[in-house]
């Protein structure tokens, strides 16, 4: 830790010895009066596009602004005047005249964006993923949206429920803070299922940040943050339809409706339904490869953009998920609670409502204030064989944020208050595990910009947990621009979260293992301590050209050290699953290199390699974390013709993984403790007509690779050896899908 702090101090001092005085751009802004004469215009905001460098005109209409190395586009903005944009690559003196917004028609600026773009300006290491990238695969839900992204690993929790989970930096999904437009989305009992409850077509874009994020969004981020931007009613399609089906008998329909009611009001409705009643058993083990059932999700949002910078939105979302899995001929009406056939029924209902109210000071664009409020009611009623599991959660979230500057726009800050309130009720057979968590907190985040070459984002939170007491969350991000497209970043930060040990390890319910919780304090959730970790890392991003074609290189290294972790131990005994506080080391080392290259005007290539070294102390032994691949190689090729044909191909190699020991089982129920490595290939071809109608056809798991016998004792599911949780690879095999998209803009 001392070494890391020393590096950060040195890093902080570099810019002040290496940077020289930047150049200035000056000028005058006028307005044209009715008599045709020009008059100096006061209080015009002048700023470089996509930067934090801002100036304001004085009483004589004059301005002075530092020349940016990250942008050559200068924007002039004033209330009741139409924005103007100029290219200022070399000019040092500018004279410009703004016209009243009432005299001009709408001006639309169109720019082609990369499907996945690395920000060179943001002090945090963020990848922006837009709709173009998401449409490279079937993308039926958020959990299936990362097939063409090398940062996220997707796997199944078990071979019965069909629940997908994600990994980042070798750490499981609950360690990743998932937000919807900067508000909690997948959290609490929804930490795993929440990925399934956000349909892919609803997603406008994703922002993916490795490591700890901003303190403004809370204290729970450990491995990283995924922020989901849902389609906005004011700038999305008036009508959008997506139909999807695959050879497994899964059919989906998505419909979006948006209406701009007037200059101030807009509203949108997003609908999703999934239907699957085809029971597949391709591996002939007597169990369904994927559960059957149906989903229905609906979202309605209203947005208001008023005068004087008032912004308000209100949204409500309803989610219903019904699943049935288990043996192929299981009938819930006759077999529930009996040992005739092993079956699983899982019903999730969730209602969410949220509001955002904000004030933007249009003459002072760096100043704003806002209040975010969200409420959630979540229920789950389920059984797995003879094991019952019911859970409910009522949550309230509030966040008040004020943003402004200290003396000038090179010194910005955000501060505010937050509240997390969670009422959890959990029943596992006869074991009642109820609790209430109340966590008020306050935060302050300071951002410093030095000539757009060096940035500091330092933040701290103070929160009080009613069960764990007070705790601090410090975080520091540094960015240094060697050149405009050579960016070094480093960070250090703390994260803390309460583990929901059953819902986050749902696969254990689809086993006969006895669940043993090593409770140490009855006043704490499950009698266990919170998970606490420090995450720190460094990254290098370089934009350059090869044969006049754009390329981006990202090299990164991260380490996560856990002060405490809830260990999920399946090695102690094959018939038991243990949960206990960490007693020893637990860490994750992760390093990766990624190259994005535009091979030609219509071919994009993405190559990546990642190495993970993730270890946890299990019952006194420091071992590799189960189901984590040490090495991963990735290749994605996208080809697009001038006639709107698109072909995408992805190959993903995953190295071997450690599997919990089954040595005490009978010989036929034993499995290897190291899985084989494997290759997974996906491909898709699509064709678009007139920018509003598109057909697509794809294949997942092109090589038809499957984990053999993923369910132990599938022939005796009520025996003590039954276990469907030891899943390390694909279960279903090759899967062909097709669909269409139709939109009215």
Describe this structure in words.
It is built from three helices and 44 strands. By secondary structure, it is mostly beta strands. The chain folds into two domains: 2-103, Immunoglobulin-like (Sandwich), CATH 2.60.40.4130; 228-744, Maltoporin, Chain A (Beta Barrel). The protein has a 22-stranded antiparallel barrel. It has a six-stranded mixed sheet with strand order 9-10-16-17-14-15. A hairpin with a 2-residue loop joins strand 14 and strand 15 (183-186). The protein is globular and about 95 Å long.
Specify the helix fraction band: under 10%
Radius of gyration: 27 Å
Main β sheet profile = 22 strands, antiparallel, barrel
- CATH architecture designation of the largest domain: Beta Barrel
What is the overall shape? globular
Mean pLDDT: 89
Give the class from helix and strand content and strand pairing: mainly beta
* Number of DSSP E strands: 44
The CATH top-level class label of the largest domain: Mainly Beta
Ranges where pLDDT stays below 50 over 5 or more residues in a row are 1-22, 102-112
Count of separate DSSP helical elements: 3
Strand content: over 45%
CATH superfamily of the largest domain: TonB-dependent receptor, beta-barrel domain
């Amino acid at each position: 830790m001392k070494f890391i702090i020393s590096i950060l101090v040195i890093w902080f001092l570099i810019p002040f010895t290496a940077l020289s005085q930047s150049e200035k751009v000056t000028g005058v802004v006028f307005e044209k009066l009715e008599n045709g004469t020009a008059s100096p215009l006061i209080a015009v905001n002048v700023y470089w596009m996509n930067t934090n460098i801002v100036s304001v005109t004085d009483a004589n209409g004059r301005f002075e602004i530092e020349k940016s190395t990250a942008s050559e586009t200068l924007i002039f903005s004033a209330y009741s005047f139409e924005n103007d944009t100029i290219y200022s690559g070399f000019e040092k003196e500018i004279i410009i005249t703004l016209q009243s917004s009432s005299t001009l028609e709408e001006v639309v600026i169109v720019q082609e964006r990369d499907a996945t773009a690395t920000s060179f300006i943001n002090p945090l290491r963020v990848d922006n993923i837009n709709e173009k990238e998401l449409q490279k695969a079937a993308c039926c839900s958020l959990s299936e949206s990362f097939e063409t992204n090398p940062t996220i690993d997707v796997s199944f929790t078990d071979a019965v429920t069909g629940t997908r989970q994600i990994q980042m930096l070798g750490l499981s999904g609950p360690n990743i803070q998932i937000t919807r437009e900067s508000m909690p989305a997948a959290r609490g009992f929804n930490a795993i299922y929440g990925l399934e409850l956000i349909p892919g077509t609803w997603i406008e874009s994703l922002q993916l940040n490795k490591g700890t994020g901003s303190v403004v969004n809370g204290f729970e981020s450990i491995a990283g943050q995924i922020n989901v931007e849902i389609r906005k009613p004011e700038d999305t399609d008036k009508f959008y339809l997506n139909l999807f089906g695959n050879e497994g008998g899964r059919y989906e329909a998505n419909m979006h409706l948006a209406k701009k009611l007037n200059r101030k009001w807009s509203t949108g409705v997003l609908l999703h339904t999934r239907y699957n009643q085809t029971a597949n058993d391709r591996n002939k083990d007597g169990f369904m490869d994927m559960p059957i059932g149906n989903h229905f999700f609906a979202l309605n949002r209203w947005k208001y953009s008023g005068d004087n910078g008032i912004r308000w939105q209100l949204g409500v979302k309803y989610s219903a998920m019904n699943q049935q899995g288990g043996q192929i001929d299981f009938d819930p009406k006759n077999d529930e609670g009996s040992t005739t056939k092993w079956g699983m029924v899982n019903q999730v209902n969730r209602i969410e409502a949220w509001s955002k109210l904000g004030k933007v000071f249009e003459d002072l664009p760096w100043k704003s204030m806002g209040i975010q409020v969200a409420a959630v009611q979540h229920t789950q009623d389920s059984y797995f064989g003879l094991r019952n599991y019911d859970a409910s959660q009522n949550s309230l979230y509030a966040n008040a944020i004020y943003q402004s500057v200290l003396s000038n726009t090179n010194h910005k800050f955000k501060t505010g208050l937050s509240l997390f309130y969670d009422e959890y009720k959990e029943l596992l057979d006869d074991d009642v595990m109820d609790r209430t968590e109340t966590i008020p907190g306050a935060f302050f985040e300071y951002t410093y910009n030095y000539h757009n070459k060096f940035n500091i984002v330092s933040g701290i939170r103070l929160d009080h947990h009613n069960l764990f007491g007070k705790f601090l969350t410090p975080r520091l991000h540094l960015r240094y621009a060697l050149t405009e497209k050579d960016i070094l970043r480093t960070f250090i930060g703390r994260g803390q979260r309460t583990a929901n040990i059953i819902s986050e390890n749902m696969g254990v319910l689809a086993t006969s293992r006895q669940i043993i919780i090593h409770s140490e304090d009855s006043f704490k959730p499950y009698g266990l301590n919170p998970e606490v970790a420090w995450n720190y890392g460094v990254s290098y991003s370089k934009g350059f050209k090869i044969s006049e074609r754009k390329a981006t290189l990202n090299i990164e290294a991260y380490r996560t050290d856990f002060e405490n972790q809830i260990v999920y131990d399946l090695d102690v005994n094959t018939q038991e699953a243990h949960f206990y506080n960490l007693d020893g080391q637990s860490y994750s080392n992760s390093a990766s290199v990624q190259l994005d290259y535009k091979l030609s005007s219509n071919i994009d290539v993405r190559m990546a390699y990642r190495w993970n070294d993730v270890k946890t102390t299990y019952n006194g032994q420091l071992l590799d974390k189960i189901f984590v691949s040490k090495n991963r190689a990735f290749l994605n090729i996208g080809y697009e013709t001038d006639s709107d044909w698109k072909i995408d191909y992805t190959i993903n190699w995953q190295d071997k993984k450690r599997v919990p020991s089954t040595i005490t089982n009978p010989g036929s129920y034993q499995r290897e403790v190291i899985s084989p490595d494997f290759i997974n290939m996906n491909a898709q071809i699509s064709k678009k007509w007139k920018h509003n109608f598109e057909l697509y056809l794809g294949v997942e798991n092109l090589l038809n690779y499957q984990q053999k016998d993923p369910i132990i004792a599938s022939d005796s599911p009520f025996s003590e050896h039954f276990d469907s949780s030891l899943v390390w690879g694909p279960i279903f095999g090759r899967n062909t899908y097709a669909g269409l998209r139709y939109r009215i803009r």
